[in-house]
Structure formats: C-alpha cells, structure tokens
Amino acid sequence: MNLLGLLFLAVSFATTALVSFGGILVMVPEIHRISVDVYHWATDAEFASAFAVSQMAPGPNIMLMSLIGWRGFGVPGLLVATFAVILPPGILAIIAGRMEVRFSKSAFFNLVRMSLPPIVIGLMMASALITGKIAVDGLIGVFIAAGVAIFVALTKQNPLIPIVLSIVVGVIAGRLGYLG
Amino acid sequence: MIGFGGIANALFHVVVDKRKWLTAEEYTMTFGLAQILPGASPINTSIMIADRFQGLRGIVCAIGGLLCVPLISLIALALIYDQFADVPEVRYGTIASVAAAAGLSFGVALKASFRVLRTLPAILFAVASFGAIGILRLPMIPTMIALMIVALTFSYMRRET
After folding, report:
1. Which domain range does residue B1 map to?
2. Closest B-chain CA to A18
C-alpha cells in the first residue's frame, strides 16, 4: 500500500482544515490544487464528479474530501481523509468549547470576529470560481450558476429548490444538445 | 444522516426542537463559536455539545453517528455513479449540479457581502483573499496565515485609535 501517499493525504488535508475558516466550502480550491494539480490523486473530471456526488449524498460537506481519499487510496484513503479533515479542527473546538464563556468575552475573540468575515467572503468567491471553472462550460452552465446565485442572495428559501431545478434544466438542455 | 446539502439545519432541529438538549440561544452561541473556528461548523458544534454532556465517549459517538451512514451511502452513490457516468443524462445532471453548487457558493458569499463589505478595508481584504486563492492559486495555508496576521493587526490598530 502507498503509505507515503496516505501520509501526504493526511498532512495536507489536516493542515488545510486548520485554516478553513468559514467552513468546508472554502477548502475546495485548496483541495483541488492539492489533489488534482500537485499530487494527481484525481483528474479534473473525477474531482467534478466527486464534488457532485458529495453534494447529492446526504451528510456533511466534508464528504468531498472522503471521496478524493477514496479515489486516490481506496478505503484507507477514505478514512484517513475524513478524519484528517475532522480531527484537527475538532480538537480546537473541544478546547474552545470548554472555555467558551471566558473565550467569547476576550478581546482577542472579538478581534478575530471583526477581522475574519471579509477574508471568508473572498475565499467563498474563490471557491465559487474554482468550482465554476471545473463545471461551467457554455452559456447554460453560466445561466444555471447565475440563477442559483441570485436566488440564494436575494431570498431566504431552501437552496435545494434551485439546485433541483438546475439539474432538471441541465438534463433538458443536454438532451436538446446545448450542453458539452 | 438526513442532511442533504449540508447538515446545519437538521442538526438544529434534532438538538433544539426534538431532544431539547439545548435552548435555541445556547445552540446559537455554540454554533457561532463553531463558525469562527476552522472546519465544518455543524461537526464542530456537535463535538462541543457531545463534549459538554458526555465527554470523550460522547464525541466518539457524535462523530460516528454523523458519519457512519453518510459515508456508506456516499460510497454506494459513488459506485452507482461510476456505473452510469457514461449515460448522457447523468453527465448533464452532474454538470448542472456542479454549476448550481458554484452558484450556491457565490450566492452565499454575495449575500454575506451586502452585510459585511461596507468599508474600504473590508473590501480590500475580500479582494486580497479572492485574488490570492481564486486567481493566483497560491497555497492556502501560508496565504491564510499572512492574511490573518495583517487583518488582526489592522483591526487591533484601529481599536487603539
């Protein structure tokens, strides 16, 4: 078994998870860079399908990383990737949770709370761009992405509605020959 | 387990409405803390709640419970997907759903930016992190550390004056 590869997987995913302020989606560009560009655990197309499957499957978003681990190294990769993403931030969460009261009143906590949001917004936009670049080909893709973005930005409805609608539009557009 | 497209909403329902482990305020506070920490907020929230009530054993159960069924169904779905990946409809659906996910990320960021990006420095920090990660494709870890240091120093200095 490729132990060295598994080690790279564990270390790169764990360290990325430690700076993933703003949630799992902000990790997408970095996970793509690591697993497609640097180590070639997956191709662009495999990354896109892993992303789609992890979004469609019920459960937390970290399952994208689980799937990349699985593609690269089978079941050991699946487990290593999953725990690499969960454990380092989880340990931080335990520490922070135990000193919640003291922590949430500290000046440092307030500084972080003030400084982080703009950076996270930039990361989310970067994540959208990288995801978009993988999937969006042609006008229909841009149309779908823009439609969902506008729906989510302007309403408080469940995003599942536009996503299901997008898939219907995609299949119809594909049938009519407007999609890759 | 039933958390399609992320589990945040389902988690609130179970912890607050159904089991009444926490009040809505307590949950919101814990979730708020989890959002500032790195990692998946719902998972971090579950870990903190489990730790408060059951300690280490609770954490193990929480992680196991959150992941076991989803991971199995994930692999099942991935295997089924591989079987049908060549069917045009599946390919179209995949392209559409990834495009929709890109739109979703963008929409969430856009919504938050109405609220957050009201000052020039905030806009500059957002542009900097977007440019570094999205356009230049710089490695995330050094980029984030550098951005955090600059942003924290900046807010600190502004507080002083």
Report:
1. 1-84
2. B38
